[in-house]
Amino acid sequence: MGVEVTVRGLTKSFGGQPVWSDLDLTLPAGEISVLLGPSGTGKSVFLKTLVGLLRPDRGDIWIEGQNLPRLSERALYEVRKLFGVLFQDGALFGSMNIYDNVAFPLREHTRRTESQIRAVVTEKLDMVGLLGAEKKLPGEISGGMRKRAGLARALVLEPSIVLFDEPDSGLDPVRTAYLNQLIIDLNQQTDATFLIVTHDINTARTVPDNIGLIYHGHLAMFGPREMLLSSTEAVVRQFLNAQRVGPIGMAEEKDAEELQAEAAAGIELPPLPPIPPQLAPSNGQPRRAERPPGQWCAQHGVTPPAGSFDAAPFGPTAGPTPGPVSRPSTVEPDLELKRAAHHRQGVVE
Ligand SMILES: Nc1ncnc2c1ncn2[C@@H]1O[C@H](COP(=O)(O)OP(=O)(O)OP(=O)(O)O)[C@@H](O)[C@H]1O
What we know:
Pfam families: ABC_tran (PF00005)
Keywords: ATP-binding, Nucleotide-binding, Transport
Protein name: ABC transporter ATP-binding protein
GO molecular function, one term: ATP binding
Number of domains: 2
Mean pLDDT: 84
CATH class of the largest domain: Alpha Beta
CATH superfamily of the largest domain: P-loop containing nucleotide triphosphate hydrolases
Bound molecules: adenosine-5'-triphosphate
Distance between the termini: 32 Å
InterPro entries: AAA+_ATPase, ABC_transporter-like_ATP-bd, ABC_transporter-like_CS, P-loop_NTPase
């Protein structure tokens, strides 16, 4: 079951160089949130600070009535058990096979017997479609499989909060689509609070309930997916639509002259594209945190761009891969279900 994470006034610097200041946001319990931002804006530092691997300069992180930066190392060790973390490369031990990697946290942090451990490891490997790959070493499987193994390991202690650091880095678009579907399905099954750091705009547009954007040392915006995807705020609009026009430059913020030149040349951001439907669980059952499409816009008097929430006929997530599916779905039972059935029969690629 997920828990709420409340961040207030969080500030972090290294050697006097600020990374970000005064971050305020709440990750709602059981919901999926995505954190975006240009490279080097401190998204990974934020994840490490949340889980207590880095201490902030100041500010609060409230979880279940405890303020993490104020806890002793011993108390922090206990709170860390609420977290599961999927690191960028899966962070697997190269000399251990997949089974032992996934079993590792259970052997380290619990007193369970080997037969109890086997039951949990088998369940989690099944969840991520890796039954049959137990004896393989990390070097013998693909990058996508390593990510899924890392995810199984992140889930074995039944975390209330799961942090994903660029789960799609290094994956091709098809593997990314499968991983996104897996993330949605796992959120439905576990009800845990998910926070995903990604650079993949398609993931950001179709997977989360909430989106946050760190820019220039601050949180530019954090809120429901529809709020950011319908926002005309320049930084949000430029980033979420992957445009060159706008305040974000190649290496840093554009200066006033560059922006004036853009304006003088009549270069403007294109109109907002339609808001795509949110990816739905593959078993057709809604997630607990799911909201009806268009609800946020309707409640806030915002007219979404024309064509919003229609099932996208084109684009990287269309076709036989598990792309965004609006409910009720008219899509034929997709390949993901067949694939999951394959995996349950022990078939891995
Ligand atoms: N342990 C550390 N000591 C000193 N500086 C650090 C440390 N960790 C991160 N930094 C610095 O903090 C800044 C933010 O780094 P971080 O990796 O969090 O960015 P990011 O937004 O995740 O980047 P990317 O999107 O490229 O992965 C960088 O300038 C980085 O060099």
